[in-house]
Design a protein that fits this description.
The structure is a single chain. The protein is an alpha/beta fold and 483 residues long. It has a domain of 289 residues: Amidase signature (AS) domain (Amidase signature (AS) enzymes). The protein is 40% helix and 12% strand. It starts with 8 loop residues before the first helix and ends with a helix.
C-alpha cells in the first residue's frame, strides 16, 4: 500500500448496494466476506486497523445468511454487509480490550445493544478495531497494541480515538464501522481518513455495552463510505433501549427517506469562532467552499457567533477526566482482566493499575481525581459544568436563527506520527471543533469535502440541534454531492 493511494471502496460497493445484492440472491454473503478478507490480507499488516479479526466466525455467519436467503427469508437491511466494531464495544465471547493491557484477553458475557441490532439487521462482524486506550486520544497512538496508520499516507495518523474504525472503512476493509464519540472520536478520524462519520444526539443510540469513558458525553455512531450508508446504520442501531437509563424513549428519526430533500430554504450558519486562529488555511477554504455549495443549492448562508464554544476545550478536559476517573476505578485487578500480585490488596491494586494503564489514561485519571477532590470541586468541576450550560445556551440561541451550523471537523489534515505526542495540549487541540457538540449533547456529522494542500482529506462538520438528525443528513447529502 503506497501513501496517498486511491481508495478502493467504489469497486467493492456500498453497504446499501451490497445488502440489496445479497437479499436478492445476486451475490452471496460468503463472497462478500471473502472479498473484504482478501483486502484485509493485502493491506492490514501496514495499516493495523484491527486488534482482532474474526474471519472464521464471519464466514460462518455469512453462510447462515446465504441459507436464509435461499429459504426465502429476508436477513435484514444490512444483509451480508461486513462491519468493523470498535474494541470498546462488548462482544459476547470475543475479546474486548479497549486497546489496554489492563483488559487483555477479557471476553464479555454479552453483546452491546448496537452489536445485537447490527446482527439482527443481517450485518457480519469481521473484527474489533484499534483505538486510543479507553478512547482517550486523538491519533490512535495511545494504544497498547501499537498505532493505526492512515490509509491515505502511512506516515500519518488516522485520528482518534476511533482511528482503527475510520482506517478500516478508508482502506476498504469494511463499508461500515462503529465507533464511539466522547469529544470528537468519530468525526475527527472520519475527517482525517476521508470518510463519513456521525455522532447522533445523546441518548438516541444505546450505550449499553459501550465501555464507559465519560458517561454524560459518550455516544456510539457509524463510519461509512457514503452518507446514505451512515443513515441506514443510524436507523438500525438507534432507538430506545430499556437497558440504558439515558436512552431516549423514541425511535431514531427516519433520516433515509429525507436524504434527497435538498437544502432549498434552509438556513446555514457558518461558526466564526471555528474559522479563526488555529484553523489551517486550506481547511478553512474548504469549509467556505462547502458553504458556497449549500448556497448554490438554495440554502441561506450567513456567519454566526457562538461565543461560548471557545471555552469548550477547557470545560471538556475537566468534565471528561472527572467522569473517567470514576468509571475507570473499577479496573482494580479483582473484577476484570489483568492482575499483578502483591502482598496486600492496596499494593496489588496499585501495581495492577500502574502496569495496566498507559500514560494518557493515567494523566486523565489524575486530572479528573484532582478536579473532584475536596477543596477543588467547585473551582474546577463545578465551574466546568456552568460553562457547559453556557455552551448549550449559545448553541440554542444560534439554532433559533439557523437550521444547521457549519465548521471544520479538524483544524488540520492528518499529521505525522510523533508530531504531537510530546505536548498533550497540542494533541487536545485537535478536538477543538468537535468537543462543543458533545458538551451540548447535539448531533454532528463529518463529511469529506475535498483535499488539502498536502493531498490529504478534509472534513466539513455539519451540526444540528438535539434530535435534528433529519436536517443534518439532508445537508450532509448535498455536501457529498457537491464535493
Amino acid at each position: 500500500m503506497s501513501p496517498a493511494r486511491a481508495l478502493p471502496e467504489a469497486s467493492l460497493g456500498t453497504a446499501i448496494d451490497t445488502a440489496a445484492a445479497v437479499r436478492s440472491g445476486d451475490r452471496s454473503a460468503i463472497d462478500v466476506i471473502e472479498e473484504r478478507l482478501a483486502r484485509i490480507a493485502a493491506d492490514e499488516e501496514q495499516v493495523h486497523a484491527f486488534n482482532l479479526l474474526s474471519a472464521d466466525a464471519a464466514r460462518d455467519r455469512a453462510r447462515a445468511i446465504d441459507e436464509a436467503v435461499a429459504a426465502g427469508d429476508d436477513p435484514g437491511p444490512l444483509a451480508g454487509v461486513p462491519v468493523a466494531i470498535k474494541d470498546n464495544l462488548c462482544t459476547r465471547g470475543v475479546a474486548t480490550t479497549c486497546s489496554s493491557r489492563i483488559l487483555a484477553g477479557w471476553e464479555p458475557p454479552y453483546d452491546a445493544t448496537v452489536v445485537t441490532r447490527l446482527r439482527q439487521a443481517g450485518a457480519v462482524m469481521i473484527g474489533k478495531t484499534n483505538l486510543d486506550e479507553f478512547a482517550m486520544g486523538s491519533s490512535t497512538e495511545h494504544s497498547a497494541t501499537g498505532p493505526t496508520r492512515n490509509p491515505h499516507d502511512l506516515a500519518r495518523v488516522p485520528g482518534g480515538s476511533s482511528g482503527g474504525s475510520a482506517a478500516a472503512v478508508a482502506a476498504g476493509f469494511a463499508p461500515i464501522a462503529l465507533g464511539s464519540d466522547t469529544g470528537g472520536s468519530i468525526r475527527q478520524p472520519a475527517a482525517l481518513c476521508g470518510v463519513v462519520g456521525v455522532k447522533p444526539t445523546y441518548g438516541l443510540v444505546s450505550r449499553l455495552g459501550l465501555v464507559a469513558f465519560g458517561s454524560s458525553l459518550d455516544q456510539v455512531g457509524p463510519f461509512a463510505t457514503t452518507v446514505a450508508d451512515a443513515a441506514v446504520v443510524c436507523e438500525v442501531i438507534g432507538g430506545h433501549d430499556p437497558g440504558d437509563s439515558t436512552s431516549l424513549p423514541q425511535p431514531f428519526p427516519s433520516v433515509v427517506e429525507h436524504l434527497d430533500d435538498g437544502v432549498d430554504g434552509l438556513r446555514v450558519g457558518l461558526v466564526t469562532e471555528m474559522l479563526g486562529e488555529g484553523i489551517a488555511d486550506d481547511v478553512g477554504a474548504r469549509v467556505r467552499a462547502a458553504a458556497e455549495a449549500l448556497a448554490a443549492a438554495g440554502a441561506t448562508v450567513e456567519e454566526v457567533s457562538v461565543p461560548a464554544v471557545t471555552y469548550g476545550l477547557s470545560a471538556y478536559y475537566l468534565v471528561a477526566p472527572a467522569e473517567a476517573s470514576s468509571n475507570l476505578a473499577r479496573y482494580d485487578g479483582v473484577r476484570y482482566g489483568v492482575r499483578v500480585d502483591a502482598p496486600t490488596a492496596g499494593e496489588m491494586m496499585e501495581a495492577t493499575r500502574t502496569a495496566g494503564f498507559g500514560d494518557e489514561v493515567k494523566r486523565r485519571i489524575m486530572l479528573g481525581t484532582y478536579a473532584l477532590s475536596a477543596g477543588y470541586y467547585d473551582a474546577f468541576y463545578g465551574q466546568a459544568l456552568k460553562v457547559r450550560t453556557l455552551i448549550r445556551a449559545d448553541f440554542d440561541a444560534a439554532y433559533e436563527r439557523f437550521d444547521v451550523l457549519l465548521s471544520p471537523t479538524s483544524p488540520t489534515t492528518a499529521f505525522a506520527f510523533g508530531d504531537k505526542t510530546a505536548d498533550p495540549l497540542q494533541m487536545y487541540l485537535n478536538d477543538v471543533c468537535t468537543i462543543p457538540t458533545n458538551l451540548a449533547g447535539h448531533p454532528a456529522a463529518s463529511v469529506p469535502f475535498g483535499i488539502g494542500e498536502d493531498g490529504l482529506p478534509i472534513g466539513v462538520q455539519v451540526m444540528a440541534p438535539a434530535l435534528g438528525e433529519i436536517v443534518m443528513f439532508r445537508v450532509a447529502a448535498v455536501l457529498e454531492g457537491a464535493a
